[in-house]
Specification:
With about 325 residues, the chain is mainly α. The protein is about 70% helix and about 0% strand. The protein contains 16 helices and no strands. The protein has helices at about 1-5, 10-30, 35-50, 55-65, 80-95, 100-105, 115-130, 135-150, 155-165, 170-175, 180-195, 200-215, 220-255, 275-280, 285-290, 315-334. Helix 5 (about 80-95) runs parallel beside helix 7 and helix 12 packs across helix 13. The longest helix is centred in the C-terminal third of the chain and has 38 residues, at about 220-255. Mean pLDDT is about 80; it is low at about 270-280, about 295-310 and about 330-334.
């Protein structure tokens, strides 16, 4: 096919039109039922490399309407390297296409497929590394919101790939140019996932990312940390108010004569979330955060099961279970 395209100039438009029809059929009619998409994209990569400048409107429409919708396919992993190569070839031909490409990738961003998220993050990093600072200024807020959403994920590979994307030298320079916008977007997502994520290894990666943000602009980072502390104190006040309301409801319930029929154990405390290392980390000052290190606990060696991380134990839940067990034993003895 490549030889036919190269030697017969009169058939080039017809060949491109047939390839477009195959892609349209794959995207909208029979998704996941074509085994030659990767080979066609390889041929298109060499064809795009030979496009004359400036690009024709036909080629721009082919990029936006045919190539980029291929990212929606469920079998993206079978042809993603070839597709990324074709997209990069267009950006090398015309750097102004980078912004529409990034916006289109954000439009087709997967919601529940973490494998596709990792692949698209790799492709997005490659595209942003080729963007000019003036082009990146148009989409910097959208880009940082996307990275913050990926950094808030519970899937460790998505979080790790998103934070590795931020460690690129070119992206760090772009973040420094837009630090007034990037740090307020990224800091809440990182601090929130530092509290909630289950992996201790991700905690270390997030702390290193926070250190990088602090080095970019300490003044903006300090403002974000103070706002986070104020929100945390407000949440603690709401939690205390909620606990007080529950205690008043329990006292009113104990005054009810019907509560004597079903005795309620009084030694069971109101369950609260146990503080983790990450909660203490948020209360540190900037100097303490610069010197802070968190040691990763070694996973327990078990002949039957090997855990990737050590989950924190909730002391209140353990006390409630012990009290429930003791209450059940006492009721059985009676």
């Amino acid at each position: 096919l490549h030889r036919v395209y190269g030697k017969m100039l009169a058939l080039r438009i017809h060949v491109r039109r047939l390839i477009n029809n195959i892609f349209f059929k794959f995207i909208y009619e029979l998704p996941g039922r074509h085994n030659g998409i990767a080979e066609l994209l390889e041929i298109l990569g060499s064809i795009i490399n030979g496009f004359a400048l400036p690009l024709k409107e036909e080629h721009r429409v082919f990029l936006l309407k045919v190539l980029l919708p291929l990212h929606k396919a469920r079998t993206l992993g079978t042809f993603q390297p070839q597709l990324a190569y074709c997209v990069v070839q267009f950006i090398e031909k015309d750097h102004t296409l980078a912004c529409p490409i990034v916006r289109c990738l954000m439009h087709f961003w997967p919601k529940t497929n973490s494998v596709k998220e990792v692949m698209l993050l790799c492709e997005l990093e490659e595209i942003v590394d080729m963007m000019h600072p003036a082009d990146f200024a148009e989409i910097h807020q959208e880009f940082f919101r996307l990275i913050a959403r990926c950094a808030s994920s519970q899937h460790f590979q998505v979080v790790e790939r998103a934070l590795v994307c931020l460690n690129s030298d070119h992206i760090l320079q772009l973040m420094q140019d837009h630090s007034a916008d990037s740090i307020p977007i990224l800091f809440p997502a990182l601090s929130r996932n530092l509290r909630a994520h289950w992996s201790r290894n991700i905690h270390n990666v997030i702390i290193n990312a926070l250190k990088s943000l602090m080095e970019l602009n300490p003044h903006v980072f300090e403002q974000c940390s103070q706002q986070a502390r104020a929100e945390a104190s407000l949440q603690r006040a709401k939690q205390q108010q909620r606990d007080t309301q529950w205690q008043s409801l329990e006292s009113l319930a104990q005054q009810n004569p019907a509560s004597r029929v079903v005795p309620v154990p009084r030694d069971v405390a109101v369950p609260r979330r146990a503080p983790r290392v990450s909660d203490l980390e948020l209360d540190m000052t900037l100097d303490e955060l610069r010197r802070s290190t968190i040691e990763v606990e070694a996973p327990s060696q078990n002949a039957r099961m090997r855990r990737r991380s050590v989950l924190p134990q909730d002391q209140d839940v353990q006390q409630a279970l012990m009290a429930h067990t003791a209450h059940g034993v006492g009721r059985t003895a009676d």
